[in-house]
Amino acid sequence: SILAISAITAQQTSMVAMNTLTPKDHYSIKRTIKKDKPIVLNATYLKEVNTENASAIVKELELQAAEFNIRNSEVFDNSEKATYHVVFKKEHGELIANYNNNGEILSSIEKYKNVAIPLQIRIQLSIKYPSWSFNSNIYQSVYNANGNLNTSFKIRMKKGNDKKTITIKNNLVH
Q1: Chain segment 103-154, per-residue pLDDT in tens
Q2: What's the pTM?
Q3: pLDDT above 70: percentage of residues in the chain
Q4: CB count, 10 Å around CB of 172?
Q5: Three-state DSSP state, 46
Q6: How much is the pLDDT for 28?
Q7: 152 CA to centre of own chain
Q8: Is 46 exposed, middle or buried (0-12, 13-18, 19+ CB in 10 A)?
């Protein structure tokens, strides 16, 4: 994944870094999340945004954001207060996080295309729309440190020549 960092201060600086995860790392990520142990500075963020049913790609980017240490980046400047805007990207989505000087996530915005839809949502939609198939989807999540989390799925469904878009907010089928 690629991440880009910019400090929003008097000095405008940016950095790009490559991050690689091995399959072993991916396995340990899943184990760590399931145990729900506070292992990082942003454990509260991780607990707020992480759901058991989220797609693996979503969990992976959320963990990268939670474990990211802004103090180790070239743009970090502790001489003045700043907000750091960091972009984490994978093939099917991106997560944009804003950090303070202490490295805490103040807010994040996530957007993913065609990720695995949580099982409970697939079941609800299959019951409500029998004979319809899932065509594509967009998952979005908006978080802020005040405890607000809003998630939504826009799911395009198809039945023959008929198409419809279903919106699901905070895991509730409307």
Answers
A1: 999 999 999 999 999 998 999 999 999 999 999 999 999 999 998 999 999 9
A2: 0.75
A3: 75
A4: 11
A5: helix
A6: 34
A7: 12
A8: buried
Calculate the dihedral angle through the C-alpha atoms of 21, 44, 59, 150, rounding to the nearest 10 degrees. Answer: -140
Question: Which residues of the chain are under the pLDDT cut of 50?
Answer: 1-2, 7-38
What is the 3-state secondary structure of 51-112? CCCCCHHHHHHHHHHHHCCHHHCCCCCCCCCCEEEEEEEECCEEEEEEECCCCCEEEEEEEE
Residue 72, φ and ψ in degrees, nearest 5: -90, 0
- Spatial contact of 145 and 104, defined as CB atoms under 8 Å apart: yes
Contact 19, 64 (CB under 8 A): yes
Residues 113 and 92: beta-carbon distance below 8 Å: yes
Residue 130, phi then psi, degrees to nearest 5: -65, 145
Assign 135 to helix, strand or coil. strand
Does residue 124 sit in helix, strand or coil?
helix
Six-digit token string for 131: 């004979």
Any idea what DSSP says for residue 116? P
